[in-house]
Amino acid sequence: MLTVNNLFCERDERVLFQNLAFDVADGEIWQIQGSNGSGKTTLLRILCGLNDEFSGEIHWRGIAQRKARQDFNNEVFYLGHTPAINKTLTAKENLNWYCASRGISNSSQIKTALNSFNLYGYEDMPCYLMSAGQQRRVSLARMLLSQAKLWVLDEPFTALDKQGVSELEALLSKHAKTGGSIILTTHHSLQIDYPLQLIDLDVLAGLVAA
Amino acid sequence: MSIIKATLRRELLIAFRSPGEIINPLMFFVIAVSLFPLGVGADQAFLSEIAPGVIWVTALLAVMLSMDSLFRADYEDGSLEQLLLSPQPLYFIVLAKVSSHWLVSGLPLVILAPIFASMLALPDAGIIPLTVSLLIGTPILTMLGAIGMALTVGLSKSGLLLAVLILPLYIPVLVFGTGVVNSALNSLGIAGLMALLGAMLVLALCLAPLAIIAALRISVSL
Asked: Is B136 exposed, middle or buried (0-12, 13-18, 19+ CB in 10 A)?
């Protein structure tokens, strides 16, 4: 689905990775590992087309990603460090706009998505009144709404409680089992009954040094 | 286009829930214009002569002041990244975003302008041309300002840089805007100047969103 070839990225005169190549197929979960500052977030942002400070090739379903931007955007969900929710708006209002921006008109799903993240009763609460974990749940609710095939998740487990973590893990393996793909970074050890593909940026950087 | 409607709704909701960002530029306009008669003296003939310029310049500065809130919150909370990843046409999302910003920052200035114009003893013949020239001119200022803001949103202290970037672009609008009012006061035809302002607005509406999108991509990629 997403093919990466010969990827090279340098930041502040430090090579983060080079000759990076992998192929994310349907139903695969890729975990990107590395210490702080090893370039995990940069890599995810490059894969999503948010950062173009790199050289190399990224293909989406065989077409160069830059040329297939609309198809790509249609099928990708990105969760960054920031929650991407406006705090003055309620959970429902935030998700309403998100649905419109994805071209999804069925807003009845919003309630279902919020319920599945235990936010029943919080639909109309302004997000600034919510805890960090609840705000994270609102961002995660977008994941279900997006109908995206490829989930790109940057530290999705941050701020979630134990129950939230296991629910999210179950959700990830469900997505992969139904043919979706996931690329994620996390420092949390994943408890998923599903094979993981690993990329270790520290090892890659070590090879560079050697 | 449901995305335009949804974006307008979101932006207006945000604006009305944090009204400080709307009221500050408006208060600046009100205070600055009110101070002029106190500073330059209450001579009616002199005031009416400088009125078009005073109102246009303060409106221009008020629009520039209001720009800072555009894109800032979206950049900080990550909504901008989601916006750039939207499969919907970005052109319309950006156009709706900037338009709603004008609705809450530019339009109130246009509505207040006639009141302040008569306070500055602008003759009746100039009041309608002034209001119409601001109605056409302030959206151009907002569009141009949005380009500068999109370029500088990633910087923490962008105020001065924004001014340096966009003030040169504001000058033609100011010249034609005040030109409309002065021509009307001297009983000259204003159709030509109005047409030029109108053409600038159409150009800004067509092209500015493209520049804003490109600038946002650069800012987000930093």
From this structure: buried
- Which alpha helices (DSSP H) does A49-160 contain, by range? 69-75, 91-101, 108-116, 132-145
Torsion from C-alpha of B49, B53, B59, B64, nearest 10 degrees: -160
Cβ neighbours, 10 Å, residue B147: 25
Residue bearing tokens 């709603």: B100
Task: Please tell me which residue of chain A has the smallest CA distance to B79.
Answer: A84
Write out residues 71-130 of B within 8 Å (CB-CB) of A: 73-74, 76-79, 81-88, 93
Question: Which range marks the domain in which residue A138 is found?
Answer: 2-209
Residue B168, number of CB atoms within 10 A of its CB:
9
Q: Cβ contacts (< 8 Å) between B85 and chain A: which residues?
A: 48-50, 73, 76, 78
CATH at A13: 3.40.50.300
- The CA-CA-CA angle for residues A142, B94, B57, to 5°, reads 135
Cα B148 to Cα A188, B109, B123, B165, B217: the distances in Å are 41, 21, 36, 6, 13
Question: Which residues of chain B form beta strands (DSSP E)?
Answer: none
pLDDT band at A207 (very low <50, low <70, confident <90, very high): low
What local confidence, expressed as pLDDT, does residue B2 receive?
A: 85
pLDDT at B173: 95
Q: How far is B19 from chain A (nearest CA, A)?
A: 11
Axis-axis angle for helices B20-40, B107-119 (nearest 10)? 20
Contacts of A53 in chain B (CB under 8 A): 221
Of A107, A40, A44, A48, nearest to A75 by C-alpha is A48
Average model confidence (pLDDT) across chain A: 87
ipTM (interface pTM):
0.88
Report how far apart the first and last C-alpha atoms of chain A are (Å, whole number).
Answer: 32
The region of weakest confidence among A19-23, A45-49, A203-207 is A203-207
Residue B99 CA from chain centroid, whole number: 10
CA distance between the termini of chain B: 31
Question: Nearest-CA residue of chain B relative to A49?
Answer: B85
Both tokens of residue B88? 């919907």
User: Which chain A residue shows the shortest CA-CA distance from B15?
Assistant: A88
Average pLDDT for A115-131? 88
Number of domains in chain A: 1
d(CA A138, CA A85): 8
